[in-house]
Amino acid sequence: MDTSVQDSGWEAVIGLEVHCQLNTESKIFSAAATHFGDEPNTHACAVDLGLPGVLPVFNHDALTKAAMFGLAIDATIAERSMFDRKHYFYADLPKGYQITQWTYPIVARGHLDIEVDGITKRIGVTRAHMEEDAGKSLHDAYPHMTGIDLNRAGTPLIEIVSEPEIRSAAEAVAYLKKLHQIVVYLGICDGNMAEGNFRCDANVSVRRRGATEFGTRTESKNINSFRYVERAIEYEISRQIEVLEAGGKIIQETRQFDPGTGETRSLRVKEDANDYRYFPDPDLLPVILEKDTLAAIRAAMPELPEAKAARFQSQYGLSAYDATTLTAERALADYYEAVVKASGADPKLCANWVMTDLLGALNKAGAEVDLARSPIGSAALAGLIKRIADNTISGKIAKDVFEAMWNDEAKGDDAADAIIKAKGLVQITDTGAIEAAIDKVIADNPSQLADYRGGKDRLFGFFVGQVMKATRGKANPALVNNLLKAKLAG
Amino acid sequence: MHELSIREMSEALRDRRISSRELTQHFLDRIAHFDARLNSFITVTPERALQQADAADARLAQGADTAPPLLGIPLAEKDIFCTEGVRTSCGSKMLDNFIAPYSATAVRKLHDEAGAVLLGKCNMDEFAMGSSNETSFYGPVKNPWDETRVPGGSSGGSAAAVAASLAPAATATDTGGSIRQPAALTGLTGIKPTYGRVSRYGMIAFASSLDQGGVLAHSAEDAAYVLQAMAGFDPRDSTSVDRPVEDYTATLNAPLKGLRIGLPGEYFTDGLDAKVRVAIDAATEVFRQLGAEVRPVSLPHAALAVPTYYVVAPAEASSNLSRYDGVRYGHRTEGATSLEELYRKSRAEGFGAEVQRRIMVGTYVLSHGYYDAYYRQAQKVRRLIAQDFDAAFQQVDMLLGPTTTDIAFKLGEKTADPVSMYLNDVYTIAANLAGIPAMNLPCGFKTVGDAELPIGLQLMGSAFTEARLLNAAHQYQQATGWHQRRPVNFE
After folding, report:
1. Cys staple from A191: which of A53, A184, A323, B98, with CB 3.0 to 4.6 Å?
2. Domain count of chain B?
3. What is the ipTM of this complex?
């Protein structure tokens, strides 16, 4: 929590609702495909359009994915959950109701642990329920008219509701990132926030430190980046404190975050809110998840970040820091393990190359290049590391080879070998050749030799540098050290 | 030709004594000739009908052995079933401009698979909300037995069309009696199958947990042929039941010896017309003579069926009809300046008074603070009503009673008093609440002035006993002739 809030004697109470799109092939209640970015209304069938007479049929793939999420947060998974109808009128809600789970959600009472400033805190997840996404209103597409795109209508969502146990914007972001990491790890959500795969509503209230009652809360809707969530919550906390300190009252309302100004503004007050008239959807049967099915889902669960990090430490002998870094994203962890497997080299060496050189290059390249589009694939990097491990090249030369690979001077899994060969970078391990180079360097530098022999030990580095220069960096550094020491001693 | 049974028509088609085109043209001619008086069709589809008839004739010419029984038989559809390329109005101004882009599963099964010919779409109460066919945007339907009287509802158009032999049989739907009550009032055999037996996909929803498609026909045998083709599991309807369909025609002639029939005492009380009671008693005697054992049973919660229904059905209707908002299809008001105004005006203009009344009732009973008192309570009572039937079916195989308290009433007689209209369904609603199959069969006539008006009896069975019900009805019809009577003014 930022210090201004801390000093003020106020405490923030935050609960988050996250809408996470499940990446099923087809929609939750129809056979239409779930695709982002296509021409409007090209993935909307009769069911999605809410035509007269159509009926929903539940896509059980959504159930599997929702159950995986529940298992990942150690929650209770309902053997019997139910779909309800939530009624409101809006142009992009074709049926006049959304099919959701109100009374009996699939997932209840889970938790996840977050870490902020080195302190670990457990945040409760009240529930997660399955529901259908709405369509989109296109307000800018036609002058004086609103277009409706129903491609998104019926995309499966899980809405994940946290307990109001979050106390700062930083904790909120840590919670969201953890949640995002889990759903992407599980492979149940593409996690692309810009495309709306993962959206957050933030319920924020403040109260005097030590108070037990909650203050009146506001809800900031549909925030679609971690940074915006942080700014929206920070803004809302300060705004509420300011209002209360001026003797005002907080109105229970829905607010919208404007990334341009960094402020939230009122969208509608609670009195205008709909009575959603929830009732069980008579078109759908209760959703039954048999014990055996759940056991099978559990058995097929991918390894989650914490478990993977622990394994990386024990299996590869990595430090806790390295293990956590390498398991932050499933794709990175998979990349690392592929490098270890393909190179057969020391896992620590592999970790250094992935973390320092690969991630360094990716960071430098900026947003346009990510791991999936990296010019150096895991097999290619393994090919490079293999040549370090078998002494074909030195670690130093390897950096040059890496750069050449990054710049696409050779392609494919054997790129490192191709570059080493083309540039003649194979390490010199022939003692005779190195001795010849040393002899020449000694002969060419009589005064330095005299100084060295007179006690100036520091000059050893000078001789190493000269030998390496003479061999264009290819001499095996360990051999150079040993031979040079002997020769200089005379 | 129109007096033949469906089996006889089918045989005549197979033997090439008549063609489907001739048969279809005959019914189209009758519709053209008589329907101005009845108003039983909203849309007649002569071109499509003749095309389908020709296709049926072509198939029959290739060999009749493998032809399904309904191939080439003309049928009418209640205008609640979506029919691809044909206006599907549901009796409402709201859908007056709606050309369905797909066909209901029942329509596909009957016409695309079984090869029946579609004559047209029948009039009905708006969104199936009504018991007299007087709430239709397309005007009331007349009862062929007395054109000053209603044919019942909501499937009044289907009933009048079949009763006047403008179609050999018609599809219909039954949410609280909308097949059985019109059947009773027009002298037809009508069956509402078990909930989940006929797919609801493409059947425009009124009250999803109660709606069930079925048949209006002249006889149990005709109904058996049509239901056979309509019934079955549909993966597009989660509430349809994955269970094999029995062969309904195969068991029609099974003897009734030992059949245990229960007479629910609650269905024979003061509200029942004396003449109707006499006809039901006589029919009971016929069943006894056919070998059935008849005994009294009790359905203790029967009186709660109507109030329960008028919570559950409007609640579901208010939700189901939310989609008619003027945005994507259907009636849209002119010149709305805001989304709110578009909704308000489109719905106020597009829906009739009865539909609006039920949307308001349904909205109310689902509202925050009222849900527990009404909807939840109604669901509890619904379970009690279903348990009454479970208990009764421990003692007997089927229940027999009246379908309606009296014969068809006069047009306009009950339009001013919704509650008296709702009480029309007092004997039929419980079967929908319990999801069990039930049917009406004609069992006599009551003379009123110059007119003879049909009286109907109702048979109800436990879930998925359609074959047994049709068998009992058929045996009764073999022993009596009520179902063969036709109104005199439609020769």
Report:
1. A184
2. 1
3. 0.96
